[in-house]
Write a structure and sequence with these properties.
Radius of gyration: 14 Å
Structural class: alpha/beta
CATH class: Alpha Beta
Order of helices and strands: EHEHEEHHEH
Distance between the termini: 9 Å
Shape: globular
Number of strands: 5
Number of domains: 1
Largest sheet: 5 strands, mixed
Helix content: 25-40%
Strand order of the largest sheet: 2-1-3-5-4
Strand content: 15-25%
Amino acid sequence: MHTTLILGIGNNLLTDEGIGVHVIRYLEEHHPDQPGISYLDGGTLSFTLAEPIADHDNLIVVDAARFGEPPGTLRCLEGDEMDRYLTGNRASVHEVGLMDLFDISRLSGTFPEHRALIGVEPESLGWGDYPSATVAPTIAKAAAEALALAQQWRQ
């Protein structure tokens, strides 16, 4: 059975920047014990995440992402499309770290078979422990998208 890691990243003290972490908390609360799916709060990223990524066949990253679209816009970028976005858009510190983690997984032969970024356009990156009113409704939508993608990859 293929396993998928859903990795939420972001700083949950900076309103919309923490969207990935809030999606992980939502999944843990509303969809615990999904076969073949693990949830991980990756915070603001570190090299310690290389091991959990290596332990799974597939990776879904949920994060705030600037697409130049209205706040609250949710986009899913898969495979090469995700790589191009991360390579060409270094607006976030942890996007640089994510590419570093991908390099480690390539070198160690554990690069995810399937990978995707579920990004949510932020409205506010100010202090606050919950997303803005514009972005908060995307928590459930991003969670549903991540679960649907993980299920699709299992087949």
